[in-house]
Amino acid sequence: MVITVNRDLFGTGRLINVADLSLGPVSCKYTSLNPVDNTVTFSAGLHECGSTVQMTPDSLVYRTVLSYNPTPAANAVIIRTNPTTIPIECHYPRKENVSSKAIKPTWAPFVSTVSAEERLAFSLRLMNDDWSAERPFTGFQLGDVLNIQAEVTTGSHMGLRLFVDSCVASLTPEREASPHYSIIDFNGCLVDGRLDDASSAFITPRPRQDMLRFTVDVFRFSGDASNLIYITCHLKVTPVEQAPDPLNKACSFNKAGNIWSPVEGTRDICSCCETRNCGLLVHSRRINHLDRWAGRRFRRDVSPTPDLSSEKEVEVDVVVGPLFLSIDQGPRGVSEDQEETSEGAAEKPGMMVGLVSMAAAVALAAIALGVVLIHRKCGRSSPLA
Fold first, then answer.
1. 28 and 158 inside one domain
2. Do 104 and 133 belong together in one domain?
3. Distance between CA atoms of residues 261 and 58, nearest Å
4. Same domain membership, residue 311 and residue 199
5. Which of 68, 55, 66 is nearest to 88 (CA)?
6. How many C-beta atoms lie closer than 10 Å to residue 271's C-beta?
7. Would you give the end-to-end CA distance of the chain in angstroms?
8. Is the pTM of this model over 0.70?
9. What is the pLDDT along the chain (385 residues), one digit of tens a residue?
10. Which of 52, 82, 113 is the last residue before a domain boundary?
């Protein structure tokens, strides 16, 4: 591992003191200094200077840090830069020979002997709008679209194609709980997209054979106040050389053409999506949309050493959720308006009584004024008599 560092570490034009640089937790010092280019070089083995190694499904990752700890100049009590650490990673693919002196195999390539005991890791994730990363929160509103990505990490098992056999939405992680709603059924038919008010569909083409994406229009269960939804999907893989068939497919309904279309394969494999009969009952997880009866639950733990030559499919159930649905309401509901109307109606009798009282008072005042005026008139005319 060779690391070259520019002495203008912070890009300010101020060169750092090379003695303040070190590599790894054990503080290895630099091996060479280039005064012309103002660079410092560290050279160490991958396992030296306290570096660590991590094994991922695809890579060996060696990690270490470059540390800068500024020290005060002679007779100085101040420093003008802050200490910092810069993480360093070296990635080496596990499917190749990481040695600088590769051995040419005579009976089997190196890639075929890498860890034959890895599990197949299935995942089901909610993605952001452009599918570039996992969605950081699970809050949705009606009218939103769920971007769902199914994936399997194949490790050393190359050439696998992933299918979403079925997906069921329910109020709990148990797919057989009541009520429940089938999103994907009949061995890969995205039946939710068949409804007139839905545009749910598989994304074509696939990003990879071991990944499958689809969209679902957000919905809620009628009459449910919790507004929580879990989605359980049954994922399975087949050898990539195995052609898609009615039991292993990914079909969406094309409303423009009024036809079912597969992500790959011929259209005839999707014809059973319309008839809802895609094979033997033991292979189906049918859930009737009208009656909402639960089909037979089937789950098989993935073998640590799946042998697709003797077993054509490896399957597992994966749950995503809970999804939180927020229902926006106006600032005032119907009941509030009705309450205000009732209160207004209750106030009207009181208002009428007040108006009648005022009218009576005005009438009495007018009568009293008339009596006074008549009395005065009579008093003025009496001497003439």
1. no
2. no
3. 34
4. yes
5. 66
6. 15
7. 140
8. no
9. 898 999 988 787 778 888 889 998 888 999 999 999 999 999 988 888 888 888 887 788 888 999 998 886 655 544 566 788 889 988 888 765 555 544 444 433 333 223 333 578 899 999 999 999 999 888 898 889 999 999 998 776 668 999 999 999 999 888 888 899 999 999 999 999 999 889 999 999 999 999 999 999 999 888 888 888 999 999 999 999 999 999 999 999 999 999 999 999 999 999 999 999 997 543 433 333 323 323 333 333 333 345 554 444 588 999 998 998 876 543 333 333 443 444 444 444 445 545 545 665 556 666 666 655 555 555 555 444 4
10. 113
> Number of structural domains, the chain?
2
The dihedrals phi and psi of 336, each to the nearest 5 degrees, come to: -70, -40
> How far is it, in rounded angstroms, from Cα 86 to Cα 23?
10
Burial class (CB within 10 angstroms; exposed 0-12, middle 13-18, buried 19+) of 47: exposed
Which residues in the chain belong to E strands, given as ranges? 2-6, 21-23, 32-34, 39-43, 52-55, 59-68, 84-93, 121-127, 139-141, 145-153, 160-170, 180-184, 201-202, 211-217, 228-239, 251-254, 259-262, 314-326
How many Cβ atoms are within 10 Å of 110's Cβ, its own excluded? 16
Question: Which CATH number characterizes residue 177's domain?
Answer: 2.60.40.4100
Tokens standing for residue 69: 């700890």
What tokens does 73 get?
Answer: 């100049």
Residues 189 and 269 in one domain: yes
Indicate if 241 and 164 belong to the same structural domain: yes
The CA-atom distances, in angstroms, between 163 and each of 211, 214, 252, 283, 316 are 8, 11, 13, 14, 11
Q: Where are the alpha helices (DSSP H) in the chain?
A: 271-275, 334-381
| Whether 269 and 322 share a structural domain | yes
Structural domain boundaries enclosing 77: 2-113
- Clarify whether residues 87 and 163 are in a common domain: no
Q: Which residues pair with 146 in a beta bridge?
A: 216
185 touches 246 (CB < 8 A): no
